[in-house]
Write a structure and sequence with these properties.
Low-confidence stretches: none
CATH topology of the largest domain: Rossmann fold
Number of domains: 2
Number of helices: 11
Distance between the termini: 38 Å
CATH class of the largest domain: Alpha Beta
Protein name: Nucleoside-diphosphate-sugar epimerase
Organism: Pedobacter soli
Strand order of the largest sheet: 3-2-1-4-5-7
GO molecular function: L-threonine 3-dehydrogenase activity
Pfam families: Epimerase (PF01370)
Helix content: 40-55%
Family: Belongs to the NAD(P)-dependent epimerase/dehydratase family.
Oligomer: single chain
Bound molecules: 2-amino-3-ketobutyric acid
CATH architecture of the largest domain: 3-Layer(aba) Sandwich
Length: 315
């Protein structure tokens, strides 16, 4: 079957790289990039791009009607740190954007839908180490609350209406191509930029704050592997735990020092993102992803650090 793929929220940190990879696989014209913001390339001479506000259901319906997608990726969201600055908008965007897409996917018989969840679904009473797929979940950010509710809706649409919706709980994603979008894990990207520009970085998370992270190449590969897996192998219809590598700011700084020996790391005091980080797991158990669709990360801390620095130096 000829795939036609719509990516909503295509200009963000994940969308930028996902669209490029999907276009390599399926061809430029079969992947429609959609965002509320103008991209930084010339849209007249580019592969398909559409301005779309995911909260405007009629506008999203227009896209389903025009392209009749076989797959839809919904990436538009407010992340953990920006979500706390505007909780009502975060809830509205993260929840109603999802419900609009789930309803339209049913109406237009879209074969597969992808929606990202996050480690933010876990909370202060979730186990901290090797946090399992099924455990106590008491998120205390609006982002985490909306992601947990969204996961329940995904499973509901799958079980009640047979919609093939798939999802992954992303850890902090580390990438050099596009800027991160206002998350608690963003320090792990800023640190690389500042290490190269200034030789120093002031971290908004404290020493000892260990969080689950992943290199973007792994995240994109894993996402497409999940979407390509046979439907009967997908046993989790809420969202899959997904692990890469866990580290603290000082461990990351020590790795950067192997390339930039004089690099120094200091810490900001009382940043509100510290509270968010404290409520999240230190590491994730992704047994279900490994068992169901063969997930295995390729980038450890050393490999991702080398690749980040090499690419940022060139860009
Ligand atoms: C954030 O920090 O909000 C995101 C996430 C872990 O979902 N990067």
């Amino acid at each position: 079957m000829q795939e036609k793929i719509v990516v909503l929220g295509s200009n963000g940190q994940i969308g930028t790289e996902l669209v490029t990879t999907l276009r390599k696989i399926y061809g430029d014209d079969n992947v429609v990039a959609c965002d509320i913001r103008r991209p930084d390339y010339d849209i007249k001479n580019s592969a398909p791009f559409e301005f779309v506000n995911v909260l405007d259901k009629e506008m999203v319906k227009g896209i389903f009607h025009k392209y009749r997608p076989t797959q839809v990726y919904l990436l538009a969201a407010l992340l953990s740190a920006t979500g706390e600055q505007n909780p009502k908008l975060a809830w509205d965007l993260n929840m109603n954007g999802l419900l609009n897409v789930l309803d339209l996917a049913l109406e237009y018989k879209t074969a597969k839908v992808y929606w990202p969840s996050s480690i933010a679904v876990f909370g202060p009473n979730s186990p901290k180490d090797h946090t399992s797929q099924y455990c106590v979940m008491d998120p205390n950010t609006v982002y985490g609350i909306s992601k947990l509710a969204g996961e329940r809706w995904c499973e509901y649409y799958n079980q009640k209406y047979g919609l093939d919706v798939r999802s992954i709980r992303y850890p902090g994603l580390i990438s050099w191509k596009a800027a991160p979008g206002g998350g608690t894990t963003d320090y792990a990207i800023h640190i690389f930029h500042d290490a190269l520009k200034k030789g120093s970085y002031q971290s908004f998370l404290n020493a000892g704050t260990e969080l689950p992270m992943m290199y973007m190449d792994d995240a994109i590969r894993g996402t497409i592997e999940l979407m390509d897996a046979p439907a009967d192998q997908i046993s989790v219809r809420s969202s899959y735990n997904f692990a890469g590598v866990s580290f603290t700011p000082e461990v990351l700084a020590a790795e950067i020092r192997k390339h930039i020996p004089d690099f120094t790391l200091t810490y900001t005091e009382n940043d509100p993102r510290q509270q968010i980080a404290n409520s999240w797991p230190r590491s994730i158990d992704d047994t279900y992803a490994a068992k169901d669709w063969g997930w295995k990360p390729e980038f450890d801390l050393s490999k991702l650090t080398t690749d980040m620095l090499k690419n940022l130096k060139k860009s």
